[in-house]
């Protein structure tokens, strides 16, 4: 069974329990798969740099609140929808909309999500390409004894070369497509189970270096002291968008994985485990990176997307065994990105196979090709198109803003409204029968009142302030 978990199910809409989904062999397989999706560049690369750009402390607190009050409740809802729908997100939503007797426009949840996934993948592959490039640089000793200045130069050279960027972006995209063609769990499922813990260990080793040789107190304070002045509505929107991004919510990835949940697995505690692991990795990455940043005056906390690619090589280049640890680290970052990337494309692939008669290979070639082409825009935004902006964003920033801060939160809002207000409470309760009534009531209440209100207020204020 385990081998077939993520190959596309064929839909059988007439039958009671839709589709022919097998189930994950256990709840833990789901935890591993969902964690593989959740833990990725968002945790190690993106969280530290956006926390840095938004002044640290208060941003981190808002982010944690969003995880708790919006992210986790919506994740429960997504898993639940996926399990009840038992198909690719688009078709699952179609089925559930009918079941709830609603108008077909609610299907937009599925469509919006699939589109967002491909758009994220487009730039995700570019950044993951940087990690691939860094494996070789680490191993060959480029950063041996490097200063922050020198590390900055190496990174700058990479960004200035479209050819180099496209080469690594293409390799990563091919890796992703290869796995999705072969069925998701076979190779990567196993790899993720072994390598994710290793990534964790390496982050702890890096943390050890930071404590010893970095300015740990300042890094810690930066992340955890509440500096209210640095916080803006635009930052709050970014924090909320990132809560969706880092938990892989709002695009059907978790819904697609939920479709394979065993009928009686407890969704609540499963989601807690995934959210906890994801948050832990992000905080560890932040704690490893910022002490190094503050110990090297040439690196700014607000340096942007290059933050980890400049600060961590300095750490590795100056620690015993750094060449080895550094190379392994970037291998693991690539793997973490890989297991996330497959969840960005899988829902769309599953849909093309289920409903449009594609086979796995053509579906992957088509969708991977689209994401790759759109990604060229991000590649160029780091060099040739650096000055081309739309509403103050370059191409990469625009894609990131549009997906993380607009599409994911909106889909999340629709999901909260759909499950909280439109689905029959008995249907929701029957799907979550194994939760205690206290847990269920608390979750349902938060999902009905708190999550949508929070998303709405943050979204409206954030968009307004971002553009004014
Ligand atoms: N969560 C992943 C990360 O933090 C990225 C990701 C994978 C994602 N699947 C997703 C983001 C679905 C949004 C939606 O790197």
How does this structure look, described?
The protein is mainly alpha-helical and 468 residues long. Helix content is 75%, strand content 0%. The chain has helices spanning 27-38, 41-53, 57-85, 89-99, 108-139, 148-159, 162-182, 184-213, 216-224, 233-246, 253-258, 267-295, 307-317, 322-356, 360-381, 395-422, 425-431, 437-467. Helix 5 (108-139) packs across helix 15 (360-381) and helix 7 packs across helix 8. The radius of gyration is 21 Å and the shape is globular. Tryptophan (TRP) binds at residues 37-38, 40-43, 117, 120, 245-246, 248, 251, 253, 340, 343-344, 408.
Helix content: over 70%
| Beta content | under 5%
- Overall average pLDDT: 89
Low-confidence stretches: 1-21
Encode the helix/strand succession as letters.
HHHHHHHHHHHHHHHHHH
Q: Roughly how many Å is the radius of gyration?
A: 21 Å
Task: Please report the number of helical segments.
Answer: 18
How many strands, what sense, and barrel or not for the largest sheet? none
Bound compounds, please? tryptophan
Distance between the termini: 53 Å
Q: In terms of quaternary structure, what is this? A: single chain
Principal-axes geometry comes out as globular
Write the layout of secondary structure elements.
Layout: H1 27-38, H2 41-53, H3 57-85, H4 89-99, H5 108-139, H6 148-159, H7 162-182, H8 184-213, H9 216-224, H10 233-246, H11 253-258, H12 267-295, H13 307-317, H14 322-356, H15 360-381, H16 395-422, H17 425-431, H18 437-467
Helix pairs in contact: 1-12, 1-14, 2-10, 2-12, 3-4, 3-9, 3-10, 3-12, 3-16, 3-18, 4-5, 5-7, 5-13, 5-14, 5-15, 5-16, 6-13, 7-8, 7-14, 7-15, 8-12, 8-14, 9-12, 10-16, 10-18, 12-13, 13-14, 14-15, 15-16, 16-18
The site of tryptophan has 17 residues, from α1, α2, α5, α10 and α14.
């Amino acid at each position: 069974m385990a081998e077939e978990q993520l190959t596309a199910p064929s839909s059988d809409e007439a039958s009671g329990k839709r589709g022919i989904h097998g189930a994950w062999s256990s709840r833990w397989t789901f935890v591993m798969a969902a964690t593989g999706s959740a833990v990725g560049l968002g945790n190690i690369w993106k969280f530290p740099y956006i926390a840095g750009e938004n002044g640290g402390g208060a941003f981190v607190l808002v982010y944690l609140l969003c995880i708790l009050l919006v992210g986790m409740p919506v994740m429960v809802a997504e898993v639940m929808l996926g399990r009840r729908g038992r198909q690719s997100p688009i078709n699952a939503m179609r089925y559930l909309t009918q079941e709830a007797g609603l108008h077909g426009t609610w299907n937009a949840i599925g469509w919006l999500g699939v589109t967002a996934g491909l758009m994220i993948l487009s730039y995700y592959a570019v950044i993951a390409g940087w990690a691939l490039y860094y494996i070789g640089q680490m191993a060959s000793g480029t950063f041996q004894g490097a200063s922050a200045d020198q590390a900055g130069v190496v990174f700058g050279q990479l960004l200035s070369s479209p050819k180099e960027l496209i080469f690594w972006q293409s390799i990563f995209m091919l890796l992703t497509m290869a796995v999705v063609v072969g069925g998701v769990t076979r190779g990567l499922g196993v790899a993720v189970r072994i390598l994710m813990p290793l990534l964790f260990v390496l982050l702890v080793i890096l943390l050890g270096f930071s404590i010893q040789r970095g300015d740990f107190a300042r890094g810690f304070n930066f992340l955890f002291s509440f500096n209210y002045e640095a916080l803006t509505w635009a930052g709050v929107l970014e924090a909320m968008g990132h809560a969706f991004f880092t938990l892989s919510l709002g695009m059907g990835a978790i819904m697609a994985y939920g479709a394979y949940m065993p009928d009686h697995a407890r969704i609540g505690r499963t989601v807690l485990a995934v959210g906890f692991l994801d948050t832990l990795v992000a905080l560890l990455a932040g704690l490893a990176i910022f002490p190094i940043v503050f110990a090297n005056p040439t690196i700014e906390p607000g340096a942007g997307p290059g933050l980890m690619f400049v600060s961590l090589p300095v750490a590795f280049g100056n620690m015993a065994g750094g060449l080895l640890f550094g190379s392994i680290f970037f291998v693991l970052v690539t793997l973490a990105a890989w297991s996330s990337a497959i969840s960005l494309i899988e829902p769309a692939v599953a849909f093309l196979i289920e409903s449009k008669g594609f086979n796995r290979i053509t579906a992957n070639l088509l969708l991977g090709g689209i994401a790759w082409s759109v990604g060229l825009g991000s590649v160029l935004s780091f060099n040739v198109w650096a000055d081309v902006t739309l509403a103050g964003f370059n191409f990469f920033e625009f894609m990131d803003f549009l997906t993380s801060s607009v599409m994911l939160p909106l889909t999340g809002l629709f999901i909260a409204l759909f499950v909280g207000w439109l689905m029959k409470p008995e249907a929701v309760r029957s799907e979550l029968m194994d939760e205690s009534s206290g847990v269920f009531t608390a979750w349902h209440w938060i999902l009905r009142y708190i999550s949508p209100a929070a998303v709405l207020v943050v979204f409206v204020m954030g968009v307004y302030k971002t553009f004014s």
